[in-house]
Amino acid sequence: MDHVVLKNRRTTLERCEKFISDELSFFSDVSLYWKIYPEKSPLKSLTHYSAPGRITYDEALKGVYKPAKVGESFGPAWSTHWFRVQIEIPAKWEGKEVHLLWNSHSEALVWQKSKAVAGLSGDKDRISFTLTKHLKAKERSHELYIEMACNTLFGAGDSLIGPPDPKKHFTLSQAEIAVRDNQAFQLYLDFEIIIGMAKHLGENNERGNEAMLTANRMVNQVVANGGSYENALKISKAFLTQKNGESQHVVYAVGHCHIDTAWLWPYAETIRKCARSWSTTLTLMKEYPDFIFACSQAQQYEWVKEHYPGLYTEISKMVKTGRFLPVGGCWVEMDGNMPSGEAFVRQFLYGQRYFQQEFNFRCKEFWLPDTFGYSGQLPQIMKLFGLDRFLTQKISWNLINKFPHNTFWWEGIDGSRVLTHFPPGDCYTMKAQVEEILKTRDNHGDKGRSAKTMFLFGHGDGGQGPSEEMLERLIKMKDVDGTPKVKLGSPDEYFSAVEASDLQNLCTWTGELYLEMHNGTYTSQAQTKYYNRKCEFWLHDVETMASIAVILAVQKSYEYPSAELLRLWKLLLLNQFHDVLPGSSIAEVYEDAVRYYKDIEESSHNLMSEAIAALSKSKGEEARVVFNTQGWERREVITLPSGEMPTSPAKKKARRETPNVVQTDCNGNTIVLVSAPSCGLAPVQPCTPVNPASASKQAGGFCLKNGLVEALINKSGHITELYVRGSKRNALSADHPGNVFVIYDDVPLFWDAWDVMHYHLETRKAVDKLVKPATVVESGPLRAALQVSWKISDKSSIKQTISLDADCPFVKFETQVEWHESHKFLKVEFPTSVKCDNATYDIQFGHLQRPTHNNTSWDMAKFEVCSHKWADLSEYDFGVSILNDSKYGFSTARNVMRLSLLKAPKAPDADADMGTQRFTYAVMPHTGSFQSAGVIQQSYNLNCPLTQGLIHSGDSVLTHPGAFFKIDTQQVVLDTIKRAEDNEKALVLRMFEAFGGTTTATLHTNLPVKEVTRCDGYEEAMTDEENDILQVSGNTATITFSPFQIISLMLKF
Ligand SMILES: [Zn+2]
Question: Which of 96, 245, 968, 985 is the most buried (most CB within 10 A)?
Fold first, then answer.
């Protein structure tokens, strides 16, 4: 007889939830969860070896193992413990599925017959390893090794982003074998789905109510049948096999494991995280033939290849079947704001080349779910590599404004468009629960335009990616009336489906994808930012000089250092990972990062010396020369090595005519003004300045001036007036001086190193305590300079040299800060006299504008933005630019320009940025536009000083006429010169249109070029049609550029 009763929603739902609860405190004697493993038995033996570090399996076998037991603790943080696990399964379990249950509350890797087979982590999902699906008599004995790492998936801190606790220990709370009751397991999963539908389809949804009553009936059936699951399973099957109509939304579920290449753990641990997660994935793939796993970051593949060759062979096989799927095409998932344009190119070049070489495979989509904003130049760079699809979701983290789209065209600053998808589940580590599947459908911003979305499932960061439970749930939800259809698939299947039916419906978002959060990442870990910029330029200089040296072949034995440059690039690209360069990692990561940067510094300086030596014959008088690696002529002050005077043949004549052209600087070194041709070299011959610099005393301060610029500086080191010579217009505000350091309270809501909140702006305090007032230390004619120092607090101080060089249009500020603050943010501000609603910022291969006002919430949210080498505020015919050599944070509020200098976060690195910090910035007032005034070129000059070297004079190189490469317009920047990857007799030149306009430029070379063609990012030839913009005649190539267009040429010799 039926007992139909009126149901109360809350009590019914809660009854069903409690019936499957994993809470130990709630009715664990009746919960289905605790019946999944009804029989358990101890291990035969457990022994332990405390390893000296992250050792190999073969090394671990040689260890001395001592008895261990459940309940023991192991540590400290980051240490490794190996366990030999011997198992004798009871005979009575024959025919049953048997698991090892292991919970060390840390990460661990199971080794079986010398193969890494599965990762474990101390969370409820990941404590079981399947010993057998169906026990046979001869399979009762097992021996496993377990490699326990003393960290969790989020490192070894006491809170999510807290610094690691070096004393942390981990307790082995469970180590036993158990029978899994698969009926209980399946029923448990059915309950999860049906209860999920009951809860999340909502009270007014008919199907949701059906789900609630179905779950309740299932509980009744189990209870009424004395714990038998069969009738309940029949009910759930009947419910879950009711199908949707044709128009139902389709969710493409893609397996994924987002492994941060370093973050709350060092790089070395990431290698093991990959092994743990990917071995688990391969094991699961054997059971689930439709399961596809998307896996990014060539660097992680290369690590696994080196450290786990057996595992890598298995992975390679699955890549060939299309199931273990490389995605992204990048070396690592890099930061999306700060790498240079060329660094972005190399991420794709070396990433895609790796996948091509290893698997004969090129990724079809750019994959960057988790970085803190996306440069407006990324669409064009992606398309250089044939990538016209993009996946992320991070913009869903916006604090202020909800981004309106999930499936749309993203258009870059040059007009390139890529098909972009943000999985509307707003997550890249989903667990395949009903709630997430429903959110994916309901949160889609482009409903009606595209009835399909992507769904990335799998624990990240050592959670081992997708689990059996996730796959089972997704398979059960394939087509259940009321929920979206679920298809296990690949990103390619998803994008192809959108391309097949929805493209004409999609909206376009133009410009950068600015993340309204984590804006402190442009500033945190200043040393990392400093080295990033320097290394980008060091590698640029080496590639330029080595390219010229290899083509000139003065020294026939010289070879382009391809392998070493690739090694150095990989180190730099690695450090551009989206938690390293942004400054959001623990201290241990920055120890590695700085080591890699110093390696790049040392090796690139050696390579530069070798390239210079290769330009020199072995005979003749040795002379000092300067090299200009930029594509325009330069005339700059250089510092000669200590004790050295100019020795070029022109010295005596030059001295006789202009006795003051050599100056001793305040450090006792000789400085001279030299000129150098575009992309070429010249002997050090002191030039007579056209615009000599001078420093003079004035009432209340000093005047630094040359023929181009004049700055009045008070004794406090503040600029009170700033002029372009010949203009009476003061570039600075009449009421507020420039070069004023300001300090803010910087207490974000949670993400300490990541964030700066808009309310910090309300806490501005000027740094106005002078330690030493400004004094003149150099008075010209080549350099005029002042020195000044201030006190920030009892612990922190600033020293600065303010200088103006002959013939230079900017005033330079070389700065040293002793920084020992907590939760403070240091900036330097320049209140200008310029009125403009938008400021312009340098980005990769171009620039873009952002508002200086707060009209809308979208404008207000951009209170702190990313900028590269320069930022400019201009009105018609006049403006002010701030240049810098290693900073990335900037803000312009109305007329006030502020360069962000230092933050003082305490998590996840408790000592971030403490100590001595050095950086240089400059202010450049200009008439006309920043383009016509040469701001772009000057910013390169500040970042890329002329290089010096000694070569034998009288050589053909020195008498070589003019520039090796020259472009006839400043509108086009020759950014990169490198040897072609696959052709020893060819160079690749990368140029971009820098002003934001259309132009025709002529490139000239005096090297013996035989053929010039246009190439793509891979350095492969482009179509005849794409070559139409190029006309070649002898040693010149004339090219038509559209705004911000990047063009690469292949020059064959
Ligand atoms: Zn990440």
Answer: 96
